[in-house]
Amino acid sequence: MCLAVPMEVVEIKGNMATVQVGDVQRRACLDLVDTFPDVGDYLIIHAGYAIHRIDPEEARKTLEYFKEILEYEVSG
Predict the structure, then answer these.
(1) Is 20 exposed, middle or buried (0-12, 13-18, 19+ CB in 10 A)?
(2) CA triplet 46, 21, 57: central angle to 5 degrees?
(3) Are 50 and 28 in contact (CB under 8 A)?
(4) Structural domain range at position 46
(5) Among 23, 24, 8, which residue's Cα sits nearest to residue 62?
(6) Which of 47, 49, 13 is CA-nearest to residue 32?
């Protein structure tokens, strides 16, 4: 199973972005993204590539679901 994660764009240099979720930052290639982002946008990141720009509210909901799942797995 593949998992893509919504991450916020904190910097863009050419076709690469620095993206962040929580305290974790990664570099992501923007060559595949459907709509070129701006700083502050949320992107779906998979295997180092941005593949889709996502609505900020949808990103927050998705990240909250991930948090709930992880909390359940750790405590369950």
Answers:
(1) middle
(2) 90
(3) yes
(4) 5-75
(5) 8
(6) 49
Bridge-partner residues for 35, per DSSP?
none
Number of domains the chain is built from: 1
Q: What is the pTM of this model?
A: 0.85
Handedness of CA 69, 8, 24, 49 (dihedral sign): positive
Q: What is the CATH number of the domain that holds 12?
A: 2.30.30.140
Could you tell me the CA-to-CA distances from 37 to 29, 32, 62, 69, 71 in Å, in that order? Answer: 11, 11, 19, 28, 31
pLDDT tens, residue by residue, 6-64: 999 999 999 999 999 989 999 999 999 999 999 999 999 999 999 999 999 999 999 99
